[in-house]
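Researcher: Please predict.
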Amino acid sequence: MSEHQLPSGAGPYADHPRLATLPREVRQNIADQIAHNRPIGAIKTLRDAIGGSLGEAKSIIDGLVELGDPGRPGSTAAPVKLASGKIDKAGTTLTLYRDGTFTTTGMFLTSSPDRLLGFSADSDTMRRKSTTGRGAALLVTGGLSLLASNNRGVLYATVTGELSGSKTYTSKNPENKLLSSIRSLQAAAEQLLSSLHPPTAAPTATDIASQLKALAELHAASALSDEEFAAAKARLLS
């Protein structure tokens, strides 16, 4: 397994005492439905996976809803490192973790864990010069500006966190080693983000009918009050 491959056991609720034994796809499905405010679908998915009563499944899902996003930083368990590398010439290091968080380390301090929302890199191509371009600049300046003739451009690496917002790290004339580090981090970040938040298709008519049935069963079993049943049904049909 390469450094950037996620293990099949990772993903949301991997350390949950009741859900940890479920397949990753099932846990991800539950997390996606909670994230999209579809708790009834999450209850049905969980009940189908573990059996038992609807009341038990509802109790577990209610607990997950209260906990919030499974990828949110702040877990007491030590996160597992996914990838790490330099993102600027000053030596700032970005470290990505399998739980969806990241830290940055400068010369003296390491930031608090933050949830990764995005990572991108771009270069100022107008100032980047090929070998031929550097030679031409050298001739134009008569050899008076070696710095200008060797200008390889400016590299921008932008890290976006849930708490810290977007921060851009700038490097002039980046070396190949730095470019390689940022390419590797970008690939790891893209894989991490797609793994934690895969695109979710809109619910079909069959999905809605199934969730309405589960909702009615919860109401009949007194797991939902009349008011809760009416509100959940209205959200589902809106």
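Model: The two ends are 45 Å apart (CA to CA).
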